[in-house]
Amino acid sequence: MKYKLFGVLRRAGFLVLVVWTVVSLVTLLIELVPGDPATAVLGDQATPEQLAQFRAKHGLDRPAFFFGFPHDENGRRRFRWYGLDNRYDDYWVAILHGDLGSSFRTDRPVIDLILERYPATIELAIAAMIIAVSIAIPLGVIAGTHRGTWLDNVVSVFALIGISLPSFVIGPMLVYVFAVKLGWLAPSGRFDVTDIILPAVTLGAALSAILTRMVRSSVIEEMNEGYVRTARAKGLSERTVVYKHVLKNGLIPVVTVLGLQLGILLAGAIITEKIFGWPGLGLLLVEDGIAKRDYSIVQGCVLAISTTYILANTLTDVVYGWLDPRIRVA
Amino acid sequence: MNRLAIIGFIIVFIFIIVALCAPWIATYDVGATNLSLRYIPPSAAHWFGTDSTGRDIFSRVVFGARISLEVGIVVVAVSAFVGTIIGAIAGYYGGWLDRILSGYLFNVFLAFPGLLLAIALVAFLGAGLNKLIFALCIIGWVGYARLIRAQVLKVREYDFVQAARALGAGDFRILLRHILPNAVQPLIVQASLGMAGAVLSEASLSFLGLGVPPPAPSWGVMIEEARDLSTLQAAPHALIFPGLAIALTVLAFNFIGDGLREYLDPRQRRP
To answer: Lesser CB count within 10 Å: N end or C end of chain A?
Structure first.
């Protein structure tokens, strides 16, 4: 019990450390913006007063960190300690109050924008996962039980294509076939229930390929186990043997990968959302944040996506250890 | 060596030749637009057809190989170099240094979605080839570092290392002459998979408008330009050829990486 508590504490400690790193990165990276964010947002035409007002409004006139190396009267860089009067500290205080600042362009609170878009991204990731699993399990079982036959080869080639074709190739190709040529589905947007099909297939394609391979090798491995021989010997049909016995054991490694992939799907959704104009966090990041140089949105989105990713991975670890005590991390 | 790895080697060989000899292989000027020649389907004059501004897609795909190869080689070389040094230090010296490096730094980098970090870096730094390469190196080194650390930990305890130490060899000499040569094989596997990753990431970032700016013939840029509905309707080949180029290149490097891994470590052979 004592051991377990230690493990939980260590994991929680690491989680805090990672989130701290991410927050530090997004707050300090803004210093790397060529020129400065005020000029980037307001343009070259802005008057010095406008720039000063903008900087004051978003706290950009204040020091970035606890210390800095500003120029002194002689133009030399000198070490200077600012104490708690800095933006890094401000950002932390604000985050702990659930405030991620406001958009540089529209003044809307970033947290509202993120909460508005968050459900769409989660919806897309879950839909992609459902599609991936419902393709991968039957295909993997077929390939595994027909090992070495033409069926197995066809499935393997399919999986290979799925792994090597990036989403920004698959997506537009699906748009071409199902929206442009056949006219069955809309090429972009999120208005109708069916609008999720193409983005979800695009996002889930690579995952379904990876899972198909995993299910295949898992099934092959399990088929050699003693319990399969026993099940067959007692006269069970091959179908029952495969779906009731083999698959149950064979899916354990698949479940872990699935959990880890949820995080990858959330990050990968950035590209898919851009292809299909799917109004999730990724689109917010790319179109409202990066393209319009609205750096407070960029900060908020990076923070939101990576925190979700990290939490999803940690949760997978915990659930997995709970499902299978042999692999519980001490 | 398995058959897929050989196919991989052949494709990569062609890819390198095409990238190196691009000016002689390309049939047209990559930037030359001609609106009277838009959307021409593949033909004898334009093997892969033309795009929405009448540029020859074959020539652009050929020059695109150059960008991919350049990014891939630089990213893999820099990441492997930096990763090897950091991994070797962590593994060889151990103790608190290792705890900071592998316990904190490696894990933080691995706990963070790589593509997102690259996107964030480029978003703040501004788009461009050099910044893209920098961002990919920042996310790339940790894989090598972890690998080398594990190898060093393993080899460090071997008798020949103890013998070298007994003979009075310094840390640097032991690392360079005795430990690292034994860690080269997995490094090559990782580098091959890393090439696939770098080519894919470059195309992804360029597709998002964060990499090589248009009109440069990056495969990612070409796909981004080919995916608006009117182009898609009139010239699906503008999407298909750069897409195939990315897929084949990524596939080939993955084949090589998987093949080498199996070859070097028969235990990992696919059932």
So the answer is: N
**pTM across the whole model:** 0.86
B162-188 pLDDT tens trace = 888 888 888 888 888 888 888 788 888
Q: Which of A316, A315, A124, A314 is nearest to A204 (CA)?
A: A124
B233/A180 touch (CB, cutoff 8 Å), yes or no: yes
pLDDT single digits (tens) B206-260: 998 888 887 888 999 888 888 888 888 888 888 889 999 999 999 899 888 888 8
- CA A256 – CA A268 distance, rounded (Å): 18
Closest CA in chain A for residue B250: A164
Structural tokens at position A211: 């899972």
Residue B7 tokens read as 């196919």
Q: What is the largest CA-CA distance in chain A?
A: 92
If DSSP codes are grouped into helix, strand and coil, which group holds residue A77?
strand
From the list A169, A175, A285, which residue is nearest B246 (CB)? A169
Reported ipTM exceeds the 0.95 cut: no
**Measured on CA atoms in the order B20, B21, B25, B27, is the torsion positive or negative?**
positive
B141 contact partners, CB below 8 Å, separation of at least 6: B78, B79, B80, B82, B83, B86
C-alpha closest to that of A279 among A167, A121, A110: A121
- With residue A67 as reference, give the H or E element that holds it: strand A67-68
Rg (CA), chain A: 25
- The pLDDT value recorded for residue A330 is 41
